[in-house]
Design goal:
alpha+beta, Endonuclease III, domain 1, 8-oxo-7,8-dihydroguanine DNA N-glycosylase activity, HhH-GPD_domain, iron, nucleus, metal-binding
Length: 445
Amino acid sequence: APAPPPARHLFSDPAEVEALRGNLLAWYDRCKRDLPWRALAATEPDADRRGYAVWVSEIMLQQTQVATVIDYYNRWMQKWPTLQALSQASLEEVNELWAGLGYYSRGKRLQEAARKVVSELAGQMPRTAEDLQKLLPGVGRYTAGAIASISYGQATGVVDGNVVRVLCRLRCIGADSSSPAVIDCLWDMANVLVDRSRPGDFNQALMELGATVCVPKAPLCGECPVKQHCQAWRRKLFGNPPKVPDVEDCGFGDCPLCPPATEPWDSSLGVTNFPRKAAKKPPRAMRTATCVLERRGCHRAPEYLIVQRPSSGLLAGLWEFPSLPLAQDLQEEREREELADHLQAWLGRPVAAKGLRFIGEVIHIFSHIHQTYVVYSLPLDGDVTLGPALSPSRWVTEDEFHASAVSTAMKKVLKAHEKQRREESSPAKGSKRKRGAKAQGAGST
């Protein structure tokens, strides 16, 4: 069995733990940000409504910045203020409101879990972290701990990215922060530190500290309320620890929490030596041919064909222009032919590859995919009857397109198409876009 972590990495002094709690909570009471989910959690008397409000915020905040989430959260809670209201919504409605927030499976799982609470749990939220994680789909260890501590007062710790950073700096934990040994240790520490009388406030304070003071780059150590407990800060001030270690210090054998010998302390980095992360895998490159099919609707206003993606996988259930994955080394002529064949299934009639007009390339970066959309357009004359395609499809106006559950990438595609159309209609421009050109304004996200 692996040796237990040395004492220097732990919080083993009760007096230090109590002092850290007091300093952090006092700072939080003075400096916490005014956020809508905190206001709801503080004022909502009904425990289940309070738990739901916190739950929605925690799901939205996964992988998404606070500033982005606020508007989505307010609109969500206005539309579905209770679990019961959300359980009656359709997935289409959920996707429409979620559009642009990213990681779309989060909204889907949130709705699925709400339906389960209403249909199987008599409308009552589970009250402990253990039950929340076990009974609600899409609720992991962190989310369960956050809901249980903030909404129901359970004295359980939480570990998210901000907490990882704070704890690794407090105790000079320099091993890969995603390794099982480090993760287990951080959860143990979070459960030791959490204040028993104010667990929700303490957990939010720890996360707030990581979000506003103990930030990844250029941390504000001078403003940190717990710097006197921070080993990384002391090491920055006083240099390396003595070469002859204490019996409780690291140095005998391999410590699972210390930086590897090949990555020693870099004095120029200071506290940002921690945490250490494993190198990320580069996102895989993908190419997709996309066609903006356009017809004239009522009053000659343009309408666009959008089709629904499969119910699982990337961007599940969202709407997009007819699209087709491409091989990386496909020649332009063959690319057009494959897209024309794909469009024939939607239109129910042959499509000439030469009739496809090249718009440009739109780049969109997902967390694990570097996606290039090769954008074409095809204007259609007269009344268009769609063929018997496999997926749902519909014609939409520009306003209806933006109100639909479409991804940010598809909004970029339409923007590139409209820009090209404006250029062609301008007498001063009208230049033909060269192959391989990136559509202006279609950057990565």
